[in-house]
Amino acid sequence: MCFLVEKQNSSEFLLTFDLGEQTRSDQHVREMDKESEKWARILWDYLCLPHSLEKSDVIIGLGCHDVRVAERSAALFLEGWAPWLLFTGYQGNQTAGVWSRPEADVFLDVALRMGVPRVNILLETEATNTGDNICFSYRLLKERNIPANRVILVQQPFMERRVSATFLRQWPDQGEHTHAIVTSPQMGISAYPHPTVGTATDLITYMLGVLERIRDYPQKGFQVEQEITPSALSAYHWFLQAGYIPK
Fold first, then answer.
1. What is the pLDDT of residues 48-94, one digit of tens each?
2. 1 in any annotated domain
3. Less Cβ crowding at N or C end of the chain, within 10 Å?
4. Which residue segment(s) compose the domain that 61 sits in?
C-alpha cells in the first residue's frame, strides 16, 4: 500500500490572525505573543503533512464544522482529480448540537453551488467520528461498485496526520495497489481562524486534542502509530502549562 499526503505549508504566523475583511477588533482575531506563535506553528507543522496530488478514483470530504473542507473537495473534483465526490458525516464533536443537519448534507449544498453535478456526488450521513468516516465511506463505495484503489481524503489542515493514521488502520483494503492522498483547504495557520470555525485559541485547543488522539488512539486500535516529535510534545506541554484545555 502507498500512502501519499499533501503538505500544508505554514505561512507567516502574525501577531494577529488575518481574517481578510474582518476588522482587527473582531472577536475572532486573537493577539498572540511571540512565544505562543512559535509553539502554535510547531504544532501546526507537525499535524500537517507533505503532499502530492494524483488522479484518483474518488475524493472523500470528511465532515466537520468547516465548510472550506467542502469547498476544497468540490474544487478538486472540478479540477478533474477524480470522477466521484463523496461526503461523509452525520454530526461529530464540532457540529453536534450546533448544526441541525448532517455534515454531509451541508457539504452537498456547498458542492452543488460550486457546480458539481449531483449525479457525481455520494452521501454518507451516519458517521460520527473519523473512523466511521473511513469505514462507512468504504462500505458505500463497495455497495455502489465504485473502484476505490486511489483515494483523496479532505479534512481540516491540522487533521491531516490523524486522518492518514486512521485510514491506514481502518480502511478495509490495505493492498499494495491502494493509494491515499490527504489534503485540506490551502491556507497557512494565520488564515485558519474565522467566525464560522472559531478563534486562534480554539484552533490551539483543537490541535492539542488532535495530538492527544494521535498519542492515545493506536492503543485503542483506532489508528496506526505515529511518531510524535520532541518539538511537538514540547509545544503540547507548553500550552497545557499556559492553561489551554484540549478539545
1. 998 789 999 999 999 999 999 999 999 999 999 999 999 999 998 88
2. no
3. N
4. 36-185+192-241
Does residue 93 form part of some domain?
A: yes
Q: Give ∠ CA 94-99-100 in degrees, rounded to 5.
A: 145
Is residue 194 a contact partner of residue 82, using CB atoms and an 8 Å limit? no
Spatial CA neighbour of 76 closest among 189, 184, 194: 184
pLDDT at residue 98 in the model = 86
Relative orientation angle of helices 68-78 and 103-114, to the nearest 10 degrees: 50
pLDDT of the residue at 20: 36
Q: Which residues contact 144 (CB under 8 A, 6 or more apart)?
A: 122
CB atoms within 10 A of CB 131: 18
Nearest Cα to Cα of residue 126 among 116, 134, 118, 117: 134
Residue 9 lies in a domain: no
List, for the chain, all residue ranges whose pLDDT scores fall below the cut of 70.
1-32
Predicted local confidence at residue 110, as pLDDT: 98
Query: By C-alpha distance, which of 153, 127, 162 is closest to 60?
Result: 153
The CA distance from 86 to 206, in Å, is 25
Is residue 126 left, alpha or beta, with left meaning phi > 0 and alpha meaning psi from -120 to 50? alpha
Number of domains within the chain = 1
The CATH number of whichever domain residue 222 belongs to comes to 3.40.50.620
**CA atoms of 190 and 182, how far apart (whole Å):** 21
Strand 121-124 to 150-154 pairing: unpaired
Residue 26: the pLDDT is 40
> Of 76, 84, 87, 140, whose CA–CA distance to 109 is shortest?
87
